[in-house]
Design brief:
By secondary structure, the protein is of the alpha/beta class. The chain contains eleven helices and 15 strands. The strands form four sheets. The protein has an eight-stranded mixed sheet with strand order 3-4-2-1-5-6-8-12, with helices on both faces. Strands 9-11-13 form a three-stranded mixed sheet. A two-stranded parallel sheet has the order 7-15. β5, α3 and β6 form a beta-alpha-beta unit. The chain is globular, with a radius of gyration of 20 Å. The termini are far apart.
C-alpha cells in the first residue's frame, strides 16, 4: 500500500529519548531516516537527514513526510508546557501526512490510558478508563489513530513501562531516582515499599519497534503491542541495580531514600513538570504491569537487555559514574 520509498522514515521528536533511540536504530537497520526539528540546521549528520520545521506546522510535517513509508510520532512539548493544547494538534498533523501517503504511524504508548479497573495486568484489549487528565488525552490520541487506520493510514502502538536509558530524558529515572550528570550519592525512590513497578530500557523499546516495522505487512491496520520490560516486584530491584553499578564502578555506597513528594506538592503551582509528575503518583502506589503475549507470539521473544547491564549503561551515558581522576603514582 505504501507509495514512494519503502524504507524512508520521518521521526518527529528525534532529539528526545525514544525518538532519538528509534532514529538511530532504524538508521543502523538500513532505513533512510529524516528528522524534523524546530530551528535545525539542515543537512545529513551521523546518517540522519535533519529538516527544519515545527511539528505544530501541518505544512512542514506534510512536506517532510512526503514519500515516507513510516512516521514515528515521538514528539513531546518541552517540559510539558501547554502539553494539553499542543499534543492533539501535533498528532493531527502526523495523521494528515500519513493518510496522504498511506504511511504507518508509530506511537510510543503509555500506561496513563488505563485506570484502576484495568490494573494490575494490562493487555492490549484492556478497557481504557483513565484516572487523569493526561490519560484522557492519551485515550483521545489513540482513538484518533484508530479512526485514521480506517482512512488510509496504518498505526503501530508499542506500550512500555517507565523509560530509562543512556541519554537523560523526561523520565523518572534521570529526573527522580538519580540526577543526570551527577555522581549518585543516594537513590530517591518514588514508590511505596513492596509495590511492584514496571521499567522499560529505551534501546529495547526501540529495537521492538524496529523489529515490528520489519514485519509491518503482517500487522493489522491498527496494531497495538505491550512490552513486559523489567518488572521490579517490590521496588527494591531497580534501586539495588543502581547501587550495585555505583559500587562496582566508583566504590561508593549509595543509600536509598524516599522520594520527597511533599516538595513536588509545594512547588507544583509553579513548575509544570512537577505538576505532571504529581498527577502520576498513583502509578507508584499500585502495581501496574503489562502482558507481552501478543508481542512474543509475533517476534518469538521480547528484546530484553539484562537489568544490571541496562542500568550501568544508563548511568554511564548520563554521566553519573564519573570518578575523580586518580593521581598518577610518583
Amino acid at each position: 500500500m505504501a507509495h514512494g520509498n519503502d524504507n524512508t522514515v520521518l521521526v518527529l521528536g528525534a532529539t528526545g529519548g525514544i525518538g532519538g533511540e528509534v532514529a538511530r536504530q532504524l538508521r543502523d537497520a538500513g532505513w533512510e531516516v529524516r528528522a524534523l526539528k524546530r530551528g535545525a540546521s539542515e543537512g545529513k549528520r551521523d546518517g540522519i537527514t535533519w529538516l527544519a520545521g515545527d511539528a505544530m506546522d501541518a505544512q512542514a510535517v506534510r512536506q517532510a513526510a512526503r514519500g515516507c513509508a513510516v512516521i514515528v510520532h515521538a514528539v513531546n512539548p518541552p517540559g510539558y508546557r501547554n502539553w494539553s493544547q499542543l499534543v492533539l494538534p501535533m498528532l493531527d498533523n502526523t495523521i494528515a501526512a500519513a493518510k496522504a501517503d498511506g504511511a504507518t504511524i508509530v506511537l510510543p504508548g503509555t500506561v496513563y490510558n488505563f485506570g484502576p479497573d484495568a490494573f494490575p495486568l494490562l493487555a492490549e484489549t484492556s478497557p481504557q478508563h483513565p484516572a487523569t487528565r493526561k490519560g484522557a488525552i492519551r485515550v483521545e490520541m489513540e482513538k484518533r489513530l484508530e479512526d485514521a487506520s480506517r482512512e488510509g493510514a496504518r498505526v503501530l502502538i508499542v506500550r512500555a513501562g517507565d523509560f530509562f536509558g543512556p541519554r537523560a530524558g523526561n523520565n523518572w529515572f534521570s529526573q527522580g531516582l538519580v540526577k543526570a550528570g551527577q555522581p549518585v550519592k543516594a537513590v530517591s525512590y518514588p514508590g511505596r515499599a513492596g509495590i511492584g513497578h514496571q521499567w522499560s530500557y529505551l534501546p529495547d523499546v526501540a529495537r521492538t519497534m524496529v523489529e515490528l516495522l520489519a514485519r509491518r505487512d503482517r500487522l493489522e491496520p491498527f496494531a497495538r503491542f505491550h512490552m513486559a520490560g523489567h518488572w521490579d516486584a517490590d521496588g527494591t530491584r531497580m534501586s539495588g541495580a543502581i547501587r550495585k553499578a555505583v559500587m562496582r564502578r566508583t566504590g561508593t555506597e549509595a543509600r536509598v531514600s524516599a522520594f520527597p513528594w511533599w516538595l513536588l506538592t509545594l512547588a507544583s503551582p509553579f513548575v509544570a513538570t512537577f505538576r505532571e509528575m504529581r498527577e502520576m503518583r498513583y502509578l507508584w502506589q499500585t502495581p501496574v504491569g503489562m502482558d507481552n503475549a501478543k508481542l512474543v507470539a509475533l517476534l518469538g521473544r521480547e528484546p530484553h537487555t539484562p537489568l544490571d547491564e541496562a542500568v550501568e549503561a544508563s548511568l554511564e551515558g548520563m554521566g553519573c559514574l564519573a570518578t575523580a581522576p586518580v593521581a598518577a603514582a610518583a
